[in-house]
What we know:
Layout: E1 20-23, H1 25-29, H2 34-48, H3 57-69, E2 73-79, E3 82-89, E4 98-102
Parallel strand pairs: 1-4
Antiparallel strand pairs: 2-3, 3-4
Amino acid sequence: CLLFLCLKGESIMSLFDKAKVLQSKKISDMSSNEMFKNEINTFLRKFIDLDWGDTPEIDSANNKQAIKNFDFILAVYESSEGRIWITAESSIGEKYDRITILFPNEY
């Protein structure tokens, strides 16, 4: 169980089954805010289900293309604490191995 992600028996499947979920310091520092914590869990589940949230259409289309080659994915979600980005990256080009949750100003 990470500070935010505790899927209670579920596993990250398909494209993200090998991905380690990371979070920025600012995201981590907000772990005591239950409403925000629940929002992050919801956003992460959406991300895993390829629901890009509030991502502009052009970027959503880019994500669909990126998945084919395990290229960088960026999704945007609006939380009670402001805009959140969730990204996925592959260091080897075969599976996504890193999902990162952060505020845009931390990129």
